[in-house]
Amino acid sequence: MTTGSIPAPTVGGWRRPVAKGAMLAAAASLWLVAYQLNRPWWDLIVYDWLGLDEGSRLGSGVHFFLYDSVKILLLLTGIIFVVTIARSYLSLERTRALLGGRREGVANLAAAGLGVATPFCSCSAVPAFIGFVAAGVPLGVTLSFLIASPLINEVAVVLLYGMFGARIAVLYVLSGLVIATLAGYVLGRVSPARWVEDFVYQTTLRGTAILPGQRLTRSDRVVMGREEVATILRKVWPYLLAGIGLGAVIHGWAPADFFTRVAGPDNPFGPLVAVAIGVPLYSNAAGILPLVEVLYAKGMAIGTVLAFMMSVVALSLPELILLRRVLKPPLLAAFVGAVATGIVATGYLFNAIL
Amino acid sequence: MFIKILGPGCANCHALERLTRDALTDLHLTAEVSNVTDYPTIAGYGVMNTPALVVDDHVVLAGRVPTAAQLRDLLTTAAA
């Protein structure tokens, strides 16, 4: 019997490739039009039809909430769809094969890059960890992968692009790659194997590695993209609305220089405090970014803002609880320490150069 | 047939179990369905993405919740 073959759907799906292509093109144009019309449309409704004053707190707060909700929703839908399809060509199994038998250092960088590109849910962190380590991928390299995957989140990158522009988004990706590469490399240097739970090394892999991407047709991938959009939106919308709502309140009510005094470029402890607050906070990129945008608009230094955001998405209590199943406390503490240090350093660097 | 649902108990694992039981009913197949939740055993099957479906000790699906039709096809093939 062949493993890994996912049968083509027998019902549903489109029958003709031409009709399918036309529908995708129509969806893409609709998306573009909606994105372009978002601001004028809410200007018209909030300021003209509802008669709210553009300069008032209520008016600008309401406008911000509506405009930002639609913008983020559109960005998320588009990005997740495209990224899911692009990622369906990679798999954890292929990534593991690419990382096996490489020298540490280069492999850490490769692992960080693949951590971004491989479809991976942090709920699979434990079986993936065991699968990598039992197949001979060095521990530090495995950790680089596990750090990069949540840290350089595709949702975060595109939302940063939408809110702060290409330069900040690129800097975010590059610094995330550097943090994941270095943290994994350093952790690999302290003989971490003694702090890995024994059963990991006793696990023998007897099953056949299966390649989920092996037999996917193009329409399978489109369906996967659509389903992923629905799944993620269903999961993040409460965070998203809470984040945008809080953002709208700060936007309308907090004085413009509020954070300049507390966490502006002149505060030497900014990034440190931001990470200390961000690590225990658990949210996802979609929830935290509207808040981040407002913090920045109200004068918080960009490095401090990015450090805050990175610490929220990269380190979370649920993920640490999962990783505790395979990592003993000293290594888990070192893992948190290395990532947090990297993020704080990035924060200071950006505050200094931007 | 012995069917195992591999997964630590996440929402997707429960969805896969429910779909599998539905598909078995639809196909008039009888099988013993059990859950494997401990990580060493899951990893022992070579599975890195949960949930996964194991039929008579062969991994037939991993990392995603299939559609009902895909699942019916998988189980028909496995039962043959």
From TrEMBL, chain B:
Residues 1-75 form the Thioredoxin-like fold domain. InterPro entries: Thioredoxin-like_fold, Thioredoxin-like_sf, THIRX-like_proc. It comes from the Bacteria. Pfam families: Thioredoxin_3 (PF13192). NCBIfam families: redox_disulf_2. PANTHER family: THIOREDOXIN. This is Redox-active disulfide protein 2. It comes from Actinoplanes palleronii. The lineage of its organism: Bacteria, Bacillati, Actinomycetota, Actinomycetes, Micromonosporales.
